[in-house]
Design brief:
The structure is a single chain. The chain has ten helices and 38 strands. The protein is α+β, with helices and mostly antiparallel strands and 650 residues long. Strand 18 and strand 19 form a beta hairpin. The model has no long low-confidence stretch (mean pLDDT 94).
Amino acid sequence: MLIPKTAPYGSWKSPLTSDLIAAQSISLAEPRLDGEQVYWLEGRPQELGRYVVVRANSLGGHGTDITPKPYNARTRVHEYGGASWTVADGDVYFSNFADGRLYCQRNGTSHPAPLTPEPAAPERQWRFADGVIDGLRQRWIGVREDHTAGGEPINTIVAVDLHQPGREPGRVLVGGHDFFASPRLSPDGRWLIWLAWDHPNMPWNSTTLYLSGLDEAGNVTELLSIAGSVSESVFQPEWLPDGRAMLFVSDRSNWWNLYRFDLASRTSEPLAPMAAEFGVPLWRLGASTYACAGPDRIVCAYSTGGLGQLAVLDLKSKSLRPFETPFTEFSFVRADGSGAVFRAGAPNHPASIVMLDLTSGAHRVLKKETDLLDQSELHIADYLSKVKSVEFSTTNGNSAYGLFYPPHNPDYAGPANERPPLLVKCHGGPTASASSVLDLTTQFWTSRGIAVLDVNHGGSTGFGRAFRDRLHLNWGIVDVDDCINGAKFLIAEGLVDDKRMVIRGGSAGGYTTLAVLVFRDFFHGGASYYGVSDVAALARETHKFESRYLDWLIGPYPQAEERYRARSPLYHADKLSKPVIFFQGAEDAIVPPNQAEALVEALRRKGKPVGYFLFSGEQHGFRKATTIQRCLDAELHFYAIEVFKISLTF
């Protein structure tokens, strides 16, 4: 057995290199069942971020690409997209990223046919998402976002005729709200349900679930609000197989719990009330935490304390029976009578598409986001840090949470009199949460001797609505306090070096990163990935979906303009004296490049250490392998030189 070499924390050599992580990783999402076939969506950084629908037999076998090059099954509805495709009887329907058009790829063919017209210009598209197939009337029903007129886009629910492909961009069925999601057709085709919400609300604050009958031509005939209010978020409505009732998730009890609505009596009832979250924030369309597995049971995922569980719920007895699995996070749940498919992962298991036998409870992994752990010659599993869930005290007598990853590398040990540097991660959103799924970028740091704390600050999801509401009017305060108090907790436990601490985050997490560095003298440097430096500019310039989000996070703009200025790092750049490195997508419509560039220039004028990388062809969230690789290497070297003052081992 080799004796570990003693070397300073942060300088360790690791087999988890940036090029290996970027080359080996893909993203997996949205599995679906269609007969004996299972489908899923793969995002491939190696193909410049192209998204591909893949098909495999649910009984076994390798996946086969369905989406041919150069098509890219991705949508930008709400900018974040999601639910870009669906499948029915072997026919795949998808939105193509380049032109925004809806396409149909018939079973057994390799040439998608357009269902909607070509846009007059790339920036004047119709965008489509979250569709279902109306087999009775031969049409696609889903969400359309109309950018053809310029200005703020118009969102509606439309029907696209499958018999007259390419002629029209869809006939409007439902309008009159700022946003729509989850149109779902009853099994007999007579009823339609959907979610809607309006500015200034976000879908995790306030949504309404609507029900309407459909006439023979498929037109909406009546409108009934069956759930939701200004203080209630409804999520993922679905029909039961018999069509006499529907299910939905609501946070009316403080927790996103399951409910059943009876069509005849027009009443709803809770199914499994508990202090757990059966819902998630609807940043991307198509999120699914449960699915019907026959008329009397559903397969459902829920989380408690930031960790997930999969279970089957008997609708007659309302009893909940958890499954024993090695996973701690579940999403995109789909099911039929005997099995379920979903995306799942754990701290030591990459996100994967998984099939589960509902009778035996046995599971089978169909596809992993990375196969690095399976390559025995690399021994990557030996280099993985084991996560620990932590709870710590924060301001106003509250508690916050986090996932702590101590440094780990079997080849090295730190000096006895030294504590490791700390990297604090701020998740995006900010209405989101830290993921417990294996993240090789986290292990990139821990395998080099750097501890990582992934913070679930006040406002994060997974801990009930009251915890989520802590961020109301307090963005830039509560999240900042909790990140600092999480680091203080680790210092008090003797787990990290209080002289070498950095903070990083993307998007909203980038804002928290900058706010911490500007307004508090605590961390020693940081990295902002497409982060916000001027929240007032964000309120003025960002896209429709988030254009009023800041009303809730900070206050209505411009009425609260002084508060916006007070919380914008850009206007207080003179207080920033710590090294910062910025990473930005040139085509980012959510946080435009000028958000980063203004603060970069302010730091340069002061002669402070600063790095800036602008990536062409990237939007909000990086998808290209080369970009991911360059960012990791640049961030590591920036910390080593400007913060940790160490020499890296190669």
